[in-house]
Amino acid sequence: MNERLKKLSSWMKENGIDVCFLTSPDNVFYLSGYFTDPHERLLGLAVFQDEEPFLVLPAMEKNDALQSGWAHEIIGFTDTENPWEMVHTAAAKRLQKNASKVAIEKEHLNVERYEELMKLFPDAKQFVSAEEKMRSLRLVKDENELKALREAAALADYAIEVGASEISEGKSELEVLAAIEFELKKKGVSQMSFSTMVLAGQNAASPHGNPGQTKIKKGDFVLFDLGVVVDRYCSDITRTLAYGDVSDKQKEIYDTVLKAQLAAIEAGKPGTPCSAVDLAARSVITEAGYGEYFPHRLGHGLGINIHEYPSVTETNPLKLEEGMVFTIEPGIYVPGVAGVRIEDDVHVTASGLEILTKYPKELQIIK
Amino acid sequence: MNERLKKLSSWMKENGIDVCFLTSPDNVFYLSGYFTDPHERLLGLAVFQDEEPFLVLPAMEKNDALQSGWAHEIIGFTDTENPWEMVHTAAAKRLQKNASKVAIEKEHLNVERYEELMKLFPDAKQFVSAEEKMRSLRLVKDENELKALREAAALADYAIEVGASEISEGKSELEVLAAIEFELKKKGVSQMSFSTMVLAGQNAASPHGNPGQTKIKKGDFVLFDLGVVVDRYCSDITRTLAYGDVSDKQKEIYDTVLKAQLAAIEAGKPGTPCSAVDLAARSVITEAGYGEYFPHRLGHGLGINIHEYPSVTETNPLKLEEGMVFTIEPGIYVPGVAGVRIEDDVHVTASGLEILTKYPKELQIIK
Q1: CATH code at A329?
Q2: Per-residue pLDDT tens digits for B266-320
Q3: Which of A283, B99, B230, B243 is the most exposed place for a label (fewest CB within 10 A)?
Q4: Contacting residues of A for B228, CB less than 8 Å apart
């Protein structure tokens, strides 16, 4: 077993867990090295205290899983086979006695599969969550992970550079978006972290607007929120650029967001609670009178998943630790006036934060 | 309440269900008209037998939900509020007595939320699945849905046209893919149904390969599998084109897949079981000696979701009915030789099938 699996097995022994059955593509990837999105089909990784783990996945993916380097058993099922019977047989072979405690991903496993697992392990008195453990395993990134995260961040910077160069009178949000993704694909990027956002003018004043046929015009803010996946690790950047001269009110909003973002970066170092990082930014915005227009948390952890631990909210007491990676992304959205968000990906070092995304943050006015 | 909600309420009355709590973005959209992907945050639609339904979603989306036309209550929660308490209060206001039977989406609801709902409705003796009902509501498409599906299919045809024109010596899969998505975005497409596949040569011999830096060379099959979302409805097309002369073996594989695909189309009409449609194609492939190289079902339903009912497998007895929309996509993947798949979206009419995707299927050899 690899080191990550060994850590999980140790945790299982400490907690008397007989079987851990993981189903989320990201946790299965983290532990097995094989990534797949099986859509509605089952994907599972069964881990035991001492016995060999196994993967269960659609038969058509078996070859890919083998080639990914997974050295243990792989159970492939076709669309007409019942994968649960196969899981049952494989687990029974490994277990000395009926499982009495099973760990699952309660935030991922659906009720239907939960009911199947309860039938499979009828003597299980407890189904506990494996998620806190998986989060703590994944919370601190190793050097390989940081390498991927840095590359993903550099490509996100490049994407903003392309976006900035594409801004011009009358061009639609989707045209700019298409140009960005086209240039990224030419660089070998095969996946974005999430649907790329290019929002112009009033559209940017919605914290989760959707890009469309809105055309860029003088006096607009143009908000880019995007990320790139490199070796399965995500980046996430937001920059807000001005096209032509913007009003004093718009500038005030921009300056407030930037000041808040820099305050949060200043606050981040090992030992600081997430809440203090959020509040460092939030208090700047509140003091400037925009508190009600910043309706979301400061940021979120980043890794295999675009949203992972830690959650950087004003109430999370979790202390920062070397190796954590998360976003810092305050925003102010005033309907009818302007929407501004500035987001960086940061990595906690021994003394503070390493900023992974490096695109400039001073207000850039494109003429 | 709209007609769809009324149908669900009638079903609840017939089955003595007090509350239906739906959580999947597609079912919430189908019933409410509001679509959002809330990521890890809660999205819920609560429906009652007679009382007013309500939506629960992140506070930052409340305005968008209002603007989508939803006429009933919307509960918005911030990242620091507990949405379950809010759901509890809103449900208690509506219910005359404690709920004893609750419907949920067992394939979507996760165990953590299931446990929250069990706490919310402590007297509920039964949690039943709402999914079969939702599938039967969604299985037959209305004229508005068909309009979106036809437009989405026409754009998928256009995407293949672009892809075909981009094939040339030494171009990478990702370069072709980028060109396709660039042209689509210029036409106003903001979302693909799933990650676009452009697979060249040996890569196409994996039924779920991933596009990368592989360069197209003479004698390759190039497989395109892609879809476009229009008004939230998905298309899904696969075409396999030849670049330069291909071997007799490759042609034999292509002809077999095409013959199988046409046989399935010929078999499809109201009253025919899904299994018979699958087997019409499968038997052509098996008789040609390639049975073991066709490892997946013939197709899947299509609508708001890229994979929905019906599942067109060799064992599904469900009979086709006017208004159903699904894919027909046989494939043969012989490692080291070739991978070919041909896929259309079809709509069941009174007399047979309307083919929504219209890009030609005869073997096209690009010189």
Answers
A1: 3.90.230.10
A2: 999 999 999 999 999 999 999 999 999 999 999 999 999 999 999 999 999 999 9
A3: A283
A4: none
Q: Do A117 and A21 fall within a single domain?
A: yes
How far is the alpha carbon of A174 from chain B, nearest alpha carbon, in Å? Answer: 6
Separation in Å, CA of B367 to nearest CA in chain A: 24
Q: What residues contact residue A285 under an 8 Å CB cut-off, 6+ apart?
A: A256, A257, A260, A291, A293, A294, A330, A332
Q: Locate tokens 């039938």: which residue?
A: A119
- Give A-chain residues touching B175 at CB under 8 angstroms: 185-186
Are residues B96 and B189 part of one domain?
Answer: no
Sign of CA dihedral A137, A143, A144, A149: positive
Measured between CA atoms, how close is A253 to chain B, in angstroms?
18
Domain stop point among A87, A113, A138: A138
Q: What confidence tens digit (pLDDT) does each residue in A302-353 have?
A: 999 999 999 999 999 999 999 999 999 999 999 989 999 999 999 999 999 9
Q: For the domain that residue A54 is a member of, what is the CATH number? A: 3.40.350.10
Contacts of B178 in chain A (CB under 8 A): 181-182, 184-186
Cβ contacts of A232 on chain B, cutoff 8 Å: none
A164 and A109: one domain? no
Q: Could you tell me if A68 and A161 lie in one domain? A: no
Number of separate domains in chain A? 2
**In which domain, by residue range, is B320 found?**
143-366
Same domain, residue pair B18 and B44: yes
Pair (B126, B38) in one structural domain? yes
Name residues whose C-beta falls within 8 Å of residue A99's C-beta, 6 or more positions apart in sequence. Answer: A18, A19, A91, A121, A123, A124
